[in-house]
Structures are given as C-alpha cells and as structure tokens.
Amino acid sequence: MKVLVLGGAGYIGSHMVTYLKSQNIASVVIDDLSTGFASSLAGAPFYQGDFANQELLQQVFKEHKIDAVMHFAASSQVGESVLQPEKYYSNNVCKTQVLLNIMRQYQVINIVFSSSAAVYGSPKQALINEQHSVTPINPYGRSKLAVEWMLQDSASAYGIKAICLRYFNAAGAAIDASNGERHDPETHLIPLVLQALSGRSHGIKVFGTDYATPDGTCVRDYIHILDIAQAHLCALDWLFEQPTGAFKVFNLGNGTGFSVQQVINIAKEVTGQQLNVKFSARRLGDPAVLVASAEQAKQLLGWQPKYSKLQEIITHAWAWEQNFSGL
C-alpha cells in the first residue's frame, strides 16, 4: 500500500508520515512548505509544491501507484479566516476540487480528509457527537464543511470512498521529542504556553475571560498527535473494507474538556515554571466550549487513544519544546 500525504511536512501530516513508516506503509508527500518543514519528512519521497497544481499531481500519480490519499493540506487559523475568508475558500475548497478531479482520472478512490470540530459551531450539548447540527460560525469551519459536502456528493456520484475526521484540538509531540508543533507564527495554546515557560517568548495572552464556563475561559478537548495518526490508519483500514460510494464522518477527541486557565495551570505543574499571563478581549469566531464524543470512532474503527491525559500530552510537548529551543 502507498499513501499520498498532502501537507505531509506540517505538524499533523509529518507525524502521520512517521507513523505510516513505523507500520511499514509507504508514503509520498506533497507540501508547499508554507507552514511545514522538509526536515520532518522521515525520508518519504517529497514533492514541493501546491497540492492543487495539476501538473504536479499528475506527475505524482504517474510515478507512484497511489492507493489512498490523506488530506492535511488546508489553512487552519480561525481568526485569520474571519479576516481573509477568500483565502480559506480558495485553499480549502477550490483546491480540493482539483484534487478530486485528478484522483478520478487515475482511479484513486480512497481519501481520508482532515476536517475539524469547527463545523459544529457553538455546541448545543455538553458532548458533541456526529449527529450534532453543523452550523459553523467562522469561514474556517464553513470551508471544512464545504469539503465534507463535496466528498459526500462525490461518493454518491462517482463512487469514491471518503472518511472525514473531525479533530478537536491536536496537541503533543513525538515521544522521543524528535518532532512537534512549530508553526510560524504559532497560534495554538499549548505550544504558546510552553514557549513562554521555556523563555522563548515573554508571556501568554488569554483571549476572553467572560465565557459561560467555570472560570470564564474557553474550554477545549485536546487529543494527542500520535492518537490522531493512529486514528487515520484505523480509518483507512475501515475504508478499504467498504463498498464504493462509502462516506462517513468521525469525531476525534478524548471526551474531556479543559479550560485555557486549566491548561496554563497544568503546564506550570509539568514544567515547574511560572508564567506571565495577560488577559485580552475575545477572539473572533471562538465558541465557548468544544468537547467531543468519539464513541463512533472507537466502535466502528476500533480506535483507542493511548495518550488521553492532558498532563501526558503537555509532558511530551514540553520535551519537544526543550529539544527545539536548544536546536
């Protein structure tokens, strides 16, 4: 089996490539390196460029017998999407349409798509399952939902087989601290907190203290990057067993929410460091609470998270931060 990993030099994609290698599964990577790093590729064949470049896609499909596509190549910052919606519809939706056309040309019918909990918008229940209404409140979430619809329609019309994995908050790092989160600029809470604790930045800014949560700060469900990688392979195995035209969405999360303030407190405990915290106004497009029910993934895919404790996630991320800051 050979898997084409789009965005395979990025945070989630690069951990996926490493995990596939550990399972003796070959991968090929396309990444434009706008947010990824070639040093994270674990030796996989690499093509630098836009995943919607038709000539590049045709070259890859001609040179490799691709059995499935894993799609991590999307713009993913909520605040930016509010300010630059055209970028998100272009990068996330229009380019995926180009990809699907090329896949059809080369009769590649299996795709696992990196979706997001942002498709749910502001939740109406404590634990969000896949039957929850999808009413995204920002262009990022709407662009992800648009791709889900496009995949569902393509499955019905053209017989592709697609799974959409709706992540909650990806976090953590490789156990050996060889790879981790290094966005530039960084926007995710845990690495921002750890950068401040390691001295790479001067503090952390908390956006909003007046949400309807126990301490007034946003609550999120954090999932270890290695558990996400494992879930993708479980999804692919399940997809191969399905008939043509199969389409399914799955949540990926741990079912436990932690507030921004709780994350800060646990990070201080793990590192033994103190932190300068500045409080600011709410950020555009942020719902108060996002917590997953991932029972469907556990039951149908046989997925079982191995690193579900937030202390463990932060410990691995801290080891990466110490390693990275010393490079």
Protein model, in words:
The chain has 327 residues and is of the alpha/beta class. The chain has two domains: 2-171 and 223-252, NAD(P)-binding Rossmann-like Domain (Rossmann fold, 3-Layer(aba) Sandwich); 189-220 and 255-325, UDP-galactose 4-epimerase, domain 1 (Alpha-Beta Complex). It has ten helices and 14 strands. It has helices at residues 11-22, 54-63, 78-83, 85-105, 139-158, 189-198, 225-240, 260-271, 295-301, 310-325, and strands at residues 2-6, 26-31, 46-48, 68-71, 110-116, 161-167, 169-171, 204-207, 219-220, 222-224, 247-252, 258-259, 277-280, 289-290. The longest helix has 21 residues, at 85-105. It is globular. The model has no long low-confidence stretch (mean pLDDT 93).
Distance between the termini: 35 Å
Radius of gyration, rounded?
19 Å
Which secondary-structure class do the elements indicate? alpha/beta
Order of helices and strands: EHEEHEHHEHEEHEEEHEEHEEHH
DSSP summary, beta strand count: 14
Low-confidence stretches: none
Count of the domains: 2
Described by strand count, sense and barrel closure, the largest sheet is:
7 strands, parallel
Q: Strand content of the residues, in percent?
A: 15-25%
Helix content: 25-40%
**CATH first level of the largest domain:** Alpha Beta
In CATH, the homologous superfamily of the largest domain goes by the name NAD(P)-binding Rossmann-like Domain
Shape: globular
Strand order of the largest sheet: 3-2-1-4-5-6-11
The CATH topology annotation of the largest domain reads as Rossmann fold
Average per-residue pLDDT, rounded, comes to: 93
Going by CATH, the architecture of the largest domain would be: 3-Layer(aba) Sandwich
Oligomer: single chain
Task: Give the helix tally.
Answer: 10
